[in-house]
Amino acid sequence: MTHFASPRIVAYAGVAAFALLVGLAVGRVELVALAAPFALAAAVGASLGRDPGVSATLALDRDRALEGEEAVVRVELHAPADVDRVDLLLQVSDELQPTGGNPRSVVVPRERTLELTLPCRRWGAFAVGPLLLRAGDRLGFHRWEGRAGAAQPLRVYPSVETLRSLLEPLETQAFIGNQLSRTKGEGIEFADIRGWLPGDRVRSINWRATARRGELHVNQQHPERNTDVVLFLDTFTDIREGTRGTLDLTVRAAASLAHRYLQRKDRVGIVSFGGYASWLLPSSGTRQLYRIVDSLLQMDIVLSFAVKGIEILPPRTLPPKALVLALTPLLDRRSAGALLDLRARGFDLVVIEVSPLPFVASGGDARARLAYRLWQLSREALRLRYVQAGVPVVEWRDGEALDAVLEEVTAFRRYAKPARA
Amino acid sequence: MLVYAGVLAYAISRQVELAPVVAIVGVFGGMLLLFMLWRRAEDVLAWVLLLLGLGYVLTIVVHPHGVDEAAPLVGAGLLLCAELAVWSCNEHARVRPERRVVVARAVAVAVLVVAGLGVSALVVALAAAPVGGGLGWTLLGALAAVGAIGLTLRLAR
Question: Which of A39, A44, A87 sits opposite B148 (nearest CB)?
């Protein structure tokens, strides 16, 4: 530990020496009386300079938590003798600041265990520790500073919304899944009746229709297929207010959607399109869910002025016939252009607009209010461009259920279909 | 600040004719004390003590009226002022100390100041005692001064 001595020991000794000298020179006892308390304090200060030898260990009760849960850090402090004051500062992100204050000052009677509760206020991958220690004597003449304990990882996963229904894609893939395909083939769900053709199975003959029409008819079914879903996250910008922001909503929605689609045996991929582009190829299963959630924890806003389009993405990240669910605050022209490009390439695109409006207040004066209105109008114009291209755009605000937003898209799709080029 | 003001008020009240000079020196020291508290500049403490001490010493040296029996109180007051000022500098609003930490320091400061007052009173009492003056006491004083200077130099290194 590094030792620091208070400059007041020197100050006290200096004042005492000065007063004694002047007292001797002028022959006044009052000056010696003035010097005496300071000489005593300097002597006491000089005698207290022993290293208290405080050491500490850190232990985190878990390495994973959900947003809103609490993690507990156990701090064990040891010292060969009682230490009158130890200041502790746990190095931890703002989102995990412990309840009860950080830093804090405690007395350490040889051994002491503290339990610091860390409320997981926001998702993310964090490091808890090390612990910065500052031990001192009772009067603060000396202090020893050092660090103890290694940083320990803590992953806070975003909370997942309960989704009762999901968006159905326009087209399904070739693999078996839970999604009823619009095409006809082998399956369970009845689709239609048609005339018998050579090669049709006997078991598929509809005997009732055959008897009524006098010739062989067979049943047709909708096959159960899987779908490819690509979650397209716009990470160019984040509008925040306090602990909430558009990126938080985006990550939460992405985690909820990935969880539900993977439960349905669909393949889910993820594209983070921002200053730093990253992607995960579509795949299915629990392992893919973990991959997605882990990649979501790394999401961050990286400022970039580079002009980017979807051509920077590998083709396999956007498989044909995939349902592309874009989560975007519609604030950056590059992501808005990339989405229109995706639509032009024939992807089944749905835009979920993570509204920044709850996080942006209109200014007080008339000019600021006018700017706010113009900004809203420009957003409205962008939305209209998507709708004209046959892309459903739904606004999702903080506090609203994602289910309701998805329902809105389903309703849109009942009346509007994307045009085929 | 209250302790500082108390000591300054006493110094001013001792010599009315010197009151403006002592007040100016004291106010300047008070401003330094405020600066110290504001910037948490513990290094300034020595100058604060010297300025306030200078104000008091002026009243003793310029018009001496025998031994000032309140000198131990002035010394202890100066020490209390310094300790409280340093305590203020050491505490930060963000750091939440336990009650035991605060009580322990308060007790330690009180003990130090009372012990300082005792030592100081003993010095005045010894000076008033009829033990005679002479070379011996002067030598003892000189040795104490040399010891204090030596300690200062050692600590400053």
Answer: A39
- For residue A307, being part of any structural domain is answered with yes
**Stretch A212-225: mean pLDDT:** 90
Tell me: do A289 and A373 sit in the same domain. yes
Helix axes A286-297, A246-263, angle to 10 degrees: 170
Count of all residues that appear for chain B in the document: 157
Domain containing residue A288: 228-415
B19 min Cα distance to partner chain A (Å)? 19
B11 Ramachandran zone, left/alpha/beta (phi>0; psi -120 to 50): alpha
**Is A184 in CB contact (< 8 Å) with chain B?**
no
Chain A hits for B142, CB-CB cut-off 8 Å, are 24
Q: What is the pLDDT averaged over residues A368-380?
A: 92
The pLDDT tens digits for A250-279 are 999 999 999 999 988 889 999 998 888 889
Burial class (CB in 10 A: 0-12, 13-18, 19+), A326: buried
What ipTM score was computed for the predicted complex, to two decimals? 0.89
| pLDDT score recorded for residue A421 | 45
Q: How many domains does chain B have?
A: 1
For B14, the domain range is 2-132
Same domain membership, residue A73 and residue A14: no
Measure CA B126 to chain center. Answer: 20
Whole-number average pLDDT of chain A: 88
Tell me: do A266 and A315 sit in the same domain: yes
Please check whether residue B12 lies inside any domain of the structure: yes
Interface test with A, best of B15, B44, B69, B79 (most A CBs within 10 A): B79
Taking each helix axis from N to C terminus, what angle separates A246-263 and A402-415, rounded to the nearest 10 degrees? 70
Looking at CA atoms only, how far is residue B71 from chain A in angstroms? 5
Q: Confirm whether B114 is domain-assigned.
A: yes
Is residue A379 located within the same domain as residue A333? yes
Average pLDDT over residues A340-355: 91
